[in-house]
Amino acid sequence: MIVGPVAITIYVVWWFINLVDGWVKPLIPNSYLPDNFLPFNVPGVGLVFGIVGLMLIGALAANLFGRTIVSYGVILLDRMPVVRGVYRLLKQIFTTVFSKQGTSFKRVGLIEFPRKGLYVIVFVSGDPPGEIKDKLDNDELMTVFMPNAPNPTTGFVMFMPAKDVILLDMAIDDGAKLVISAGLVAPKQSKLKQLAEQAKKKQATPTVVPPKEEEPAA
């Protein structure tokens, strides 16, 4: 139970370091690469240079000169026929994901799918867009996202009657863990429910108090 997660974590970190090194190292001048001066390869050099580069770009974009350059770059991307569509799509995705104005999922729910009697986890996004609600002529509609397991970044967006969605008290993070783990990681409230049921049983069981022994008369 301990060795498995630790080994997988180390493997993922090592894979990520090698991936970044493969991208960044070819961009670094040979005079700055320690591999050219040492008899062995130094992992993580590309990652360090990448982090430093991102920090410099962030510092540059924070001042007036940097914002001017970024704005010109955005205008250039917005005028390129093919790149323009990709840029706008990615911008909208990042704006939605990192927005702090409550545009994330609202609730976790269940719907019957793919047939009656089978249920899947869905995430409630909110109300459908106005045009869809008007065309369907139904005021009690919900926009839900049904993720695929174990990769919740893909799935189906559905507009369905609110009466067909069973809302859960489960947190969004717990719902995501349940999908990613293919049902192996149960939400914490299931344990709390078991504890609550045990506490109710104890309360229902009458407590027998032994009678006090009478003290002998003096």
TrEMBL record:
Residue ranges spanning the membrane: these are 7-24, 44-65
Q: Which domain of life is it from?
A: Bacteria
Tagged with keyword Hydrolase: no
Mention any Pfam family matching this sequence. Answer: DUF502
Q: Which spans of this chain does the record mark as coiled coil?
A: none
Show the segment(s) annotated as Disordered. 196-218
> Which InterPro entries does the protein's record reference?
COV1-like
Keyword Transmembrane among UniProt keywords: yes
Q: Which UniProt keywords apply?
A: Membrane, Transmembrane, Transmembrane helix
Q: What is this protein called?
A: DUF502 domain-containing protein
